[in-house]
Amino acid sequence: MGSLADDTIADLLEGPVKSKGGRSGNRARARRVVNYAPEVMVKITGNAKGADHVQSHLDYISRNGKLELEDEHGDMIKGKDEVRSLAKDWSQDQGKRRKNTRDTTNIIMSMPAGTEPRDVKNAVRAFAKRQFGQNHQYVMALHTDTDSPHVHLTVKCLGYDGRRLNVKKGDPQKWREAFAAELERRGVEAEATPRATRGVIKRGVSQVVRHIREKGQTPQVDQAKVREILEDFRDQRAGKPQRPRPWEDRIKERQTYVRKAWLTAAKDLNQSRDPEDQELAESIAAFVGSMPPMKTERHELQKMVVERLQRSAQTRQGREKGRAQDHQDER
C-alpha cells in the first residue's frame, strides 16, 4: 500500500537525498519536512572583483583580523597582517582577467538557531573539501554574532588548473543537499528541501533591504517595481486591461501542483492500515494548510504601496479638515 504516495513524495523531494533509503527513506524525509525539520541555508552573497575588493571582503569576514580564517589545508590565518598577506597573495595570482573578472565567490552557509556552531563549521569544512579542495583555494570563518550560526566560505575563483569557478544555476541547491548530508553525518537533523516544495514563493530578502523597508523608505531595488505598481493603478483607473505576467502564472501553477501532490500523497497514505502512514497523512494535510499564501514579492510591495497611499490620503484629508475648521473659526 502507498506506492502512489511513494512516487508522489519522491517527485516532490527533489535532489540526491530523496533516493536514500528508497521507499522508507522518502517517507522518513517527508515526515521531517512536514514536521519542519531545520532547513540549511546556502547563499551566494556575491563576488569580489579586484585586489581592493578581495581585501575588503576578507577584512569583513575576519572582523578585521579578530576572527580566525581557516584555509583549505586546515591552517589558521590570524590577525590583520596575515589576512592582508593572504589577500595580497590571491590578488598577485589572478591569471588572465578582464575588467569585471570575479576573483572570489562568497558563500554563506548556516543553520537555524539552536544548532551547535561547531557542528556547522565541521560540516562546512567537510563540504568545502569535497566540493572545492581538489582545485581551489578557499578560507572560511565561523560567525556566531546572530541567532543562526553561519560560516562565510570564500572561494578563490582561479583554480590550480587555470580555469575559473563557474557556478551553474542548480549548484546552490546541490550544495544545500551536500551540506545537509554532512550535518546528518554528524548527528544533526537537517533538510535541504527546495523552496517550492515547501510552498514558499518569495525569495529571501537581505537584511539591508529589510531594514530600509522597516524605516518606511524604498530601497533602490524596489523603486522600479514600485513604479510598475503605480502604473498598474493608473491603468486600472483608466479601465485598461491588466498587463500579462506569465512568470507569475507559472509560479501559481507550480504551487498549485505542489499542494495537490502533497494532498494526493496524504490521501493515499490515509488509506493504509499502518498507523504511521495515517499519522503522516495528517501531518501532510496540516503542512499544506499552513503553507504561505501564493503571493510574490510584487504582491507584498503592492500592499505596502497601497498602505502608503492610504496614509497619504488620510493625512491630506486631515489637513483639509483642519484648514476648513480654521476657516470656520475665523468666520
UniProtKB/TrEMBL annotation:
Coiled coil: none
Biased composition (Basic and acidic residues): 295-310, 317-331
Disordered: region residues: 232-251, 287-331
Gene3D superfamilies given in the database record: 3.30.930.30
Every MobA/VirD2-like nuclease domain range: 76-180
Protein name: Relaxase/mobilization nuclease domain-containing protein
